[in-house]
């Protein structure tokens, strides 16, 4: 039976299921990890920088994930690179929730090839309606996925529901700056078919509403600019090799979209970083 999704989530699902998007993210953006990387140089390969992000976030929640029988939910798991890292490093059980069936097929194949499919369950679903009982997880993890929801407050409610008392949420998200002027991000909103992004202030308000403790918020916006610039450069470098996999129209629209993200970041209109909250015990 097909899941019922909100309009914003269905738009994202259709996009990520398209052959153009699947091939672009798998072959250009990094394959294992399709999120913003932490860069040591402007020329660093995307995959290296993206893997560094996973390692950096995992270091911050090593304690709860090292406990026996620890369970984590990855909300918007993409191709499952983070889930595999966590399962291999900590031996924890991971529910990899993701809305794209195309990405999930690749995810399951890579889990099996890595011998980690006994630790990772991949589920076709939205983080606006998580198919899990209350108080199921020690950690909720997400990387650059919440922007695709038009109901981010509902996403936070669902995370609060499925986290155990004392459980932790750690995530990244491309966001608008707290003092972003109205109207300047319209080209980005048009591309992602939404009217807003989250912000550090928004997520702090949600944490306060839910009674969560703020563990740490790291503003690392410079990596958003570096990442979208690097993806654009890589796409131009590989354009000829991608001709049989990604349409010219998609490439042109992607390059224009990446340019909007870089411009927004350089103008101080965007934010990105690691956000870490804890639910009361």
Number of helices: 11
Low-confidence stretches: none
What structural class do you assign from the helix and strand content?
A: alpha/beta
Distance between the termini: 36 Å
Average pLDDT value? 92
Concise structural overview:
The chain has about 280 residues and is of the alpha/beta class. The protein has helices spanning about 5-15, 20-30, 45-60, 60-65, 80-90, 100-115, 150-160, 185-190, 200-210, 220-240, 250-265; strands at about 70-75, 95-100, 120-125, 135-145, 165-170, 175, 215-220, 270, 275-280.
Q: How does this structure look, described?
A:
Helix content is 46%, strand content 18%. It is an alpha/beta fold. The strands form two sheets. The chain has a seven-stranded mixed sheet, with helices on both faces. It has a two-stranded antiparallel ribbon with strand order 6-8. The longest helix has 19 residues, at 248-266. The protein is globular. The protein starts with 6 loop residues before the first helix and ends with a strand. The mean pLDDT is 92.
Keywords:
alpha/beta; two-stranded antiparallel sheet; globular; 281 residues; 46% helix
Layout of secondary structure:
Layout: H1 7-17, H2 19-29, H3 46-60, H4 62-65, E1 71-75, H5 81-90, E2 93-98, H6 101-113, E3 120-124, E4 137-143, H7 152-162, E5 163-172, E6 175-176, H8 186-192, H9 200-210, E7 213-219, H10 221-238, H11 248-266, E8 270-271, E9 273-278
Parallel strand pairs: 1-2, 1-4, 2-3, 4-5
Antiparallel strand pairs: 5-9, 6-8, 7-9
């Amino acid at each position: 039976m097909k899941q019922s999704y909100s309009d914003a989530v269905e738009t994202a699902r259709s996009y990520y299921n398209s052959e153009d998007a699947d091939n672009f993210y798998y072959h250009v953006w990094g394959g294992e990890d399709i999120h913003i990387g932490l860069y040591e140089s402007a020329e660093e390969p995307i995959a290296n920088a993206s893997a560094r992000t996973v390692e950096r976030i995992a270091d911050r929640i090593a304690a709860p994930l090292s406990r026996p029988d620890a369970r984590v939910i990855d909300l918007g798991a993409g191709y499952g690179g983070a889930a595999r890292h966590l399962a291999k490093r900590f031996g924890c059980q991971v529910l990899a929730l993701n809305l794209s069936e195309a990405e999930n097929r690749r995810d399951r194949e890579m889990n099996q090839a890595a011998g980690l499919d006994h630790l990772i369950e991949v589920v076709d679903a939205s983080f606006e309606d998580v198919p899990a009982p209350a108080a199921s997880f020690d950690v909720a993890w997400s990387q650059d996925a919440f922007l695709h929801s038009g109901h981010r407050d509902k996403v936070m409610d669902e995370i609060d529901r499925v986290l155990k008392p004392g459980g932790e949420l750690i995530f990244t998200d491309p966001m608008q700056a707290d003092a972003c002027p109205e109207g300047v991000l319209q080209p980005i909103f048009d591309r992602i078919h939404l009217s807003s992004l989250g912000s550090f202030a928004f997520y702090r308000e949600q944490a306060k509403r839910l009674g969560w403790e703020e563990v740490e918020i790291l503003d690392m916006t410079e990596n958003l600019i570096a990442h979208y610039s690097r993806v654009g450069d890589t796409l131009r470098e590989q354009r000829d090799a991608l001709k049989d996999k990604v349409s010219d129209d998609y490439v042109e629209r992607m390059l224009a979209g990446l340019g909007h993200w870089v411009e927004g970041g350089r103008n101080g209109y965007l934010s990105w970083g690691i956000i870490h909250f804890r639910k009361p015990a």
